Amino acid sequence: QVQLVESGGGLVQAGGSLRLSCAASGRTASSYAMAWFRQAPGKEREFVASISWNPNYTNYGASVKGRFTISKDNARNTLYLEMNRLTPEDTAVYYCATRRYTRGSVSPPDYDYWGQGTQVTVSS
Description:
Blueprint: E1 2-7, E2 10-13, E3 18-26, E4 34-39, E5 46-51, E6 58-60, E7 68-73, E8 78-83, E9 92-98, E10 113-114, E11 118-123
Parallel strand pairs: 2-11
Antiparallel strand pairs: 1-3, 3-8, 4-5, 4-9, 5-6, 7-8, 9-10, 9-11
């Protein structure tokens, strides 16, 4: 069993920055892939970014590529999402997830554990 807890969400002005954190506990493994997803009202859950067991292997959704950076600190069992140049279209609940596999995926059903989500609201 793995527990994931997100933090760092809040209200920010367009053009601003925010850093989200996801603390993992339980039967975690640094080799497991992790990811961030987001979901806005009335929309499907959207892939944001993933990172494999090797932090050099990352993947980003087209809408955030070049603006967001995913990273992890294995010693602290923590996943991060650095969000820059935010726009109102980034407003959503952000979730972190992990799967028992070394490769990341863009499909939510492929992930085994999820956090509770943290709200990010970007004002214009």
